[in-house]
Amino acid sequence: MCGASRLKASFSADGEEKELDADNWKPWFLEKVRGKFLIPDTNFINRHYASKMLCPMLDQDSTKLIFRLPRLVVLEIERRGNMAKDQSKEKRLAFFAAREINFLRATAGGGFDFEMLPNIDASLMTSFTEKAGKQLTDMWIRKEIHDAMTTGMLGRSQDVVFLTCDLMNALAAEAEGLPSCYFSRLTQDKIFIDQTNYGKIFDLILATAMMFEKIRLDVVLTADKIYGSFFLRGMWTGKTTSQWYSDCIEVSKVA
What we know:
Strand content: 15-25%
Structural class: alpha/beta
Distance between the termini: 32 Å
CATH class of the largest domain: Alpha Beta
CATH superfamily of the largest domain: 5'-nuclease
Strand order of the largest sheet: 2-1-7-6-3-4-5
CATH architecture of the largest domain: 3-Layer(aba) Sandwich
């Protein structure tokens, strides 16, 4: 989907930035992250930038990526899902984010390198649970990364790239000596889907059904004449884990 690539990435460590362009962005990004640990924050996972942007853009070169996921990111997604009302948008997006984590883990077998950061101290988890939701979540996740660096698992700070879509988080990370790559959206009036990759149409439908819970699809064969109408649900009572991981959508015909 062309619209998905309308992003701009900037490395706060050296001030360089580049729009995502299939012709020149790939070698630029690979040079920046070569041999480094990529650590995504919660919003990077929530937006599915690994599966829907990085891997498609890098193609076979995505095997060169080294991901390390903070355990507090998983805890934050779980917390949001458990606190949200049943069938709410927040709960749907939490389940959808959990699917992105499964993508990272599943792809690691035949693709890039992926591991969770080491088990965190119980006191850190308790503090995080107490403070989460009070605008301190990002700080505790960065603390987990710094703690992992002190154990030697992540090497030195220059061996790490913090991936985020939150400008304040990127600036705070850099202030703490944590190199970051900030991804920002570019304004765009239209989204284009090329005919060579029609699977992206399903990605668009899936994401829209997840966002709004239920959407309506009208099939038009001739001008102003609807051939058939269907309701597509991204979440429903009784949806199982296998249906989440297989991108299952419930389809029912409009009466």
